[in-house]
Design brief:
- The chain has about 325 residues and is an alpha/beta fold.
- The chain has 2 domains: about 5-175 and about 225-250, Rossmann fold (3-Layer(aba) Sandwich), CATH 3.40.50.720; about 190-225 and about 255-325, UDP-galactose 4-epimerase, domain 1 (Alpha-Beta Complex), CATH 3.90.25.
- Helices cover about 40% and strands about 20% of the residues.
- It is built from 10 helices and 14 strands.
- The protein has helices at about 15-25, 55-65, 80-85, 90-110, 140-160, 190-200, 230-240, 260-270, 295-300, 310-325; strands at about 5-10, 30-35, 50, 70-75, 115-120, 165-170, 170-175, 205-210, 220-225, 225, 245-250, 260, 275-280, 290.
- The protein has a 7-stranded parallel sheet with strand order 3-2-1-4-5-6-11, with helices on both faces.
- Helix 2 (about 55-65) crosses helix 4 and helix 6 (about 190-200) packs across helix 10 (about 310-325).
- It is globular, with a radius of gyration of 19 Å.
- The two termini are about 35 Å apart.
- The structure holds nicotinamide-adenine-dinucleotide.
- Nicotinamide-adenine-dinucleotide binds near residues 36, 53, 55 and 170.
- The site of nicotinamide-adenine-dinucleotide has 29 residues, from helix 1, strand 2, helix 4, strand 5 and strand 7.
């Protein structure tokens, strides 16, 4: 805990929650964010915010040196699956080339520890569920392929240059820090829970359900939702684990699956009224079921997600939907 933690993408959804948790745990923090998707209001006033790009080696190296950074948590990325298919260049450039340059800045400054935001999208269509970390890696989107490329880069840098890293493969991040004044704001929003709650609040006319003929109990897709505060805790455990291990790859999910219809009906209970739904056909590339095995993160990191109750997750997201800045 001697040095400062550089949080790239710390003005975004998961990054801003992790910054709060780092402060609560006594860490010193600096945020680097180019604000392409992030928000200055999401960064606490006491945290230095460097507005700039992870690809700017000079700026990153200067930030590391001037602020005494000893480790990096790397959230900064583009993460829209559909956009990645229509504009792969932007994704390879920002995610892969950007991370390469971030690693260069770490090398020239002798900074050796990084925790990286990977994704369940590296697995693609799973052969078995729950998905463990040894499952086949066969991403079906450009987004997933950029994240897998970065995982490979970290592994190779560890072998050749002694980099210490943890890749965290998140399933569906959800909810908001209760009373924390921060929450999920993506533009455009593509995540189910905020879309459902925006349909509930009238911010959008309805929520679209893609596919009702999957081989699941109610015909809709099943996903694993993990509260953003539990995700934030895992980053601190991952940082601490780099004192003891050089590298690791962990799934971060709740190990429970909920269907789209279950999300809508539980959300209706939380908001107290029906939510308008429009049923559409399947989207290509959407697997029927994605549920994590989180056994490894529990056993090796000591991670113990505590906000796994779906209604509780939705309550925190609903509180945020009602109070979020009208951007
Ligand atoms: N939200 C999820 O459910 C989910 C699931 C799996 C993985 N992830 C990964 O977690 C990370 C954070 O996701 P999020 O939902 O908080 O996204 P977000 O868009 O809210 O946050 C990303 C932040 O990174 C910043 N950024 C992007 N490119 C940058 C660059 N080149 N230089 C500096 N800053 C840059 C953006 O401005 C933004 O503040 C991403 O890497 C994403 O791929 C998210």
């Amino acid at each position: 805990m001697d040095g400062r933690v550089l949080v790239t993408g710390g003005a975004g959804y998961i990054g801003s929650h992790t910054v709060r948790r780092l402060l609560q745990n006594g860490y010193k923090v600096v945020v680097l964010d180019n604000l392409s998707k992030g928000h200055t209001w999401a960064v606490p006033l006491e945290v230095p915010l460097v507005i700039g790009d992870i690809a700017d080696i000079g700026l990153v190296a200067q930030t590391i040196r001037q602020l005494g950074v000893t480790s990096v948590i790397h959230f900064a990325a583009f993460s829209l699956v559909g956009e990645s298919m229509s504009d792969p260049r932007a994704y390879y450039s920002n995610n892969v080339a950007g991370t390469l340059r971030l690693l260069d800045a770490m090398r020239v400054t002798g900074t050796s520890c990084i925790v990286f935001s990977s994704t369940a999208a590296v697995y693609g269509e799973p052969a078995r569920v729950p998905i463990d970390e040894d499952s086949v890696l066969h991403p079906t989107s450009v987004y997933g392929r950029t994240k897998l490329a970065i995982e490979g880069m970290l592994e190779d840098y560890a072998a050749a240059y002694g980099l210490r890293y943890i890749s965290l493969r998140y399933f569906n991040a959800a909810g908001a820090d209760p009373g924390g004044g921060i929450g999920e704001v993506h533009n455009p929003e593509t995540h189910l829970i905020p879309l459902v709650l925006q349909a509930a609040s009238g911010r959008r006319p309805f929520v679209e359900v893609f596919g009702t003929d999957y081989a699941t109990a109610d015909g809709t897709c099943i996903r694993d939702y993990i509260h953003v505060s539990d995700l934030a805790d895992a980053h601190i455990l991952a940082l601490q684990s780099l004192d003891k291990q050089q590298k690791g790859v962990y799934n971060l999910g709740s190990s429970q699956g909920f269907s789209v219809r279950q999300i809508v009906s539980t959300a209706e209970g939380v908001v107290g009224h029906p939510i308008p739904v429009v049923e559409s056909g399947r989207r290509s590339g959407d697997p029927a079921v994605l549920v994590a095995s989180n056994v490894r993160a529990r056993a090796e990191l000591g991670w113990n997600p505590s906000m796994t109750d779906l209604e509780m997750i939705l309550r925190t997201a609903w509180e945020w939907e009602q109070n979020r800045p009208r951007t």
